[in-house]
């Protein structure tokens, strides 16, 4: 048992799906997993372990933002032996050709967070996806006619910015979308030599102003979950 996850030895699988929203973790477990058991309810951050096509899989909510998510990533890896961490989250589009409900594979993650400045001081670490998981996701998506976008994403510390036009400088350099956890996930995975991939579904667009509802963000976006489960 760790500080934030109340699970016993062996309760958590080596492959863990990581939605930020604990209610999305519940929905994933109930929708996709057989014999799912809830192993964690501490702080309402639900975690479940079950089976997908005979493979043992866990789903753990991580909260919003790097500070919250890194707590769960650290404990899953160091205290429960997680080997594959796959983020399944939502993002806001920065590009005209990245629309609502599009699936994005994060090849790398730029960030406004100071997380790696604290580690590397005046140098800059480039958080990057695991090549094996990324490749498997591409193959699965193509075989199952799931249209995806892949590239650099922005992990932002702020959900609400003072300057609503700030996104344009990132868009100019090809950043596909913005979210709040991927850079932290890729960094800790690199440090501890585990595999990580962030699979995102576009929930809103800073370009068009279109957005999905909170209920849709909690209980839909099946394609990214299917990819995650099949490469785990």
From TrEMBL:
Q: Which GO terms describe its molecular function?
A: purine-nucleoside phosphorylase activity; uridine phosphorylase activity
Asked if the record carries the keyword RNA-binding, the reply is no
Write the signal peptide boundaries.
none
SUPFAM superfamilies hit by this protein:
Purine and uridine phosphorylases
**Record Pfam families:** PNP_UDP_1
Question: Where does the Nucleoside phosphorylase domain lie?
Answer: 16-226
Write down what this protein is called.
Uridine phosphorylase
